[in-house]
Amino acid sequence: MTVRLDDRPMPFPETRRASRLARWKAFDPDEIRGIRLLSPTFLYTLAFLVGPILVVVAYSFWTQTYLTIDRSFTLENYRIALSEPIYRDLLLRSLYISFTVSLVTVIFAYPIAYFISFHGGSRKGLLLFLITIPFWTGYLLRVMAWKVILGYNGVLNTGLIGLGIVDKPVESLLFSSTAVIITLIHAWAVFAILPIYVSLEKLDRSLLEAATDLGDGPVRRFLRVTLPLSMPGVIGALLIVMIPTVGDFVTPRLVGGTEGQMIANAIQIQFGKASNWPLGSALTITTMMIVTLMAGASVLVLRSAVRWMR
Amino acid sequence: MKLLKVAGSSWLPVYAGLYLVFLYLPVLLLPVFSVNASAVPVFPLKGLTFDWYRSLVGNDALINSLWNSLIVGVAASLLATVLGICAARAITRYKFRGRRPMTAVIMAPLFLPEIIIAISLLMVALQMGLGLSLILVIFGHVLICLPYSATVLISGFEGFDPAYEEASADLGETAFGTLRRVTLPILMPAIISSLLVSFTISLDEFIIAFFLSGTEPTLPIYIWGQLRFPAKLPGVLALGTLMLLASLMLLTFAEMLRRRAARRTQIDGGFHA
Question: What residues make up the domain containing A164?
């Protein structure tokens, strides 16, 4: 019997690489079936999401020279995106808005998810259904509804005057960052409730009994068992609200006024009127990177806060 | 302790009620102002009218955009559901290397601003010399529908014991017979949920359609155009009310269907997953 090179315990680089390759090749039939089944969906996402985003990244390093694109590498677009006061201000405001919106939405959503999961009983399905209905109204129309509410002669102002709280309409309600924040909190509520609800549903109820048996009161039990175990849902909710809202340009355009414009409005202009794709790409990539960093930092802070409370 | 518990359990329902008011109040303003006899949506109400609904009848631009939206919605939901079925079955049934990263890529649109999907497809399409069209909108919508349809279908597949399929094969059914008489009936609620959720997302989507639809507006693009003219607002509110009623009927129907199927198979397809 001959001993094959692979079997000998010799640390030659060649042998090692060969054995690693051998391990990599060892797909069993089930694995191949799984990969084959997943590949249409995966390839679709590669072709229509990952590929195009790589094109955006490439463009962000090029320059627009009137009607043509200069394909030599440059960081000039990023310099403009980060240092021009207008883009810097829009970016900071967008981050502030998306951070506030996600935080407030999650804080407001948690008790609702908790209520449905723990006190919903047999009406859980109905309650979830009730919460999802407003979400199907159509995004534009919900933003419009807020415009009607917050307007100068809007529902809120007429109501406040009717109740005698103010004498004349409050002007600052509409066309401000606050209007954008309120509208977005309303629009994204469902996205925060559902992930938290799912993680609360997965929570093993006997753990709560154990905590009570071991002498924890309701508050301590919540802080030390329920909250930490529902963290995946909270984090999911936070990310699902924070990252997409940073790129919204409908809400700022309709209720934001000049003081409530966000970075996506500037990006849209680069792909429309201004027609500067490289700068638009750099603005998009910068926004994505920074919001991802912000989201990552929020998750870390949240995790350590919960660990500290325990 | 007992006092705290009582306070806690009475506080929560009140809060839930207030929250529902917050969710519903803006939405309920649409039907209210859509039958108000004033072109400006302010209180006090002026009287009942159905003029705004009448103004929608025979509006060619509206009907055209509605038609475009239906085409996009049907195509996107079908494609997203087929791709979602492949993904859900692969993820729940098989263990393989690269499953997690591949799943993460498929779920990524959930955590991306839509504007990046829109501009990246816009750049690639124009770069390749393809014009903007509804087909491009469909491709974009499939991307954003996939995470939802996959989630719904994964929860459907998780409640589905492979032993049923094996039993059917052992009892002499062909592969197609098993698919038709065992697999599809059990998964039907999840498939219908996936179709409906995808359709509704596509119908509502604005940003991707805004960048990619070119000269063929979908319904949200039509509404966006109308919003520039304050005089057209009541008509838009009437349209919104009709859309709300339509999606409400569709969702109630889906929920009833799911409950019936769940009772029959004792498996919860997970409409809200």
Answer: 85-309
Q: Residue B150: what pLDDT? A: 93
Residue B60, burial from CB neighbour count under 10 angstroms (0-12, 13-18, 19+): exposed
Residues 205-244 of B with CB under 8 A from A: 205-207, 211, 220, 223-224, 227, 233, 236-237, 240, 243-244
- Min CA distance, A102 vs chain B (Å)? 13
pLDDT at B269: 43
Q: How far apart are CA B146 and CA B152, in angstroms?
A: 10
- In a domain, residue B2? The reply is no
Per the CB < 8 A criterion, the answer to whether B62 and A14 are in contact is no
CA B32 to CA B237: how far, in whole Å?
9
Q: Tell me, what CATH number does A113's domain have?
A: 1.10.3720.10
Is residue A51 over pLDDT 90?
Answer: yes
Q: At residue A188, what is the residue type?
A: W
> Tokens 């494609």 appear where?
B79
- Rounded Cα distance between A176 and A261, Å, is 8
User: pLDDT at position B262, please?
Assistant: 65
Chain mean pLDDT for chain A = 85
**Domain CATH number, residue B157:** 1.10.3720.10
Its ipTM equals 0.84
In angstroms, the CA B42 to CA B36 distance is 9
Is residue A57 in a domain? no
**What are the start-end ranges of the H helices in A120-138?**
124-132
Angstrom distance (rounded) from CA B209 to CA B137: 6
DSSP conformation class of A69? E
Q: Which residue shows structure tokens 């609702």?
A: A112
A217 CB neighbours in chain B (<8 A) are 1, 4
CA distance B171 to chain A (A): 24
Counted domains in chain A: 1
* Both tokens assigned to A225: 């068992």
Q: Per residue in B98-137, pLDDT tens? A: 889 999 999 999 888 899 999 999 999 988 888 788 999 9
Specify the pTM.
Answer: 0.84
Q: What is the dihedral of CA A58, A63, A68, A70, to 10 degrees?
A: -80
Tell me which DSSP letter residue B232 carries: G
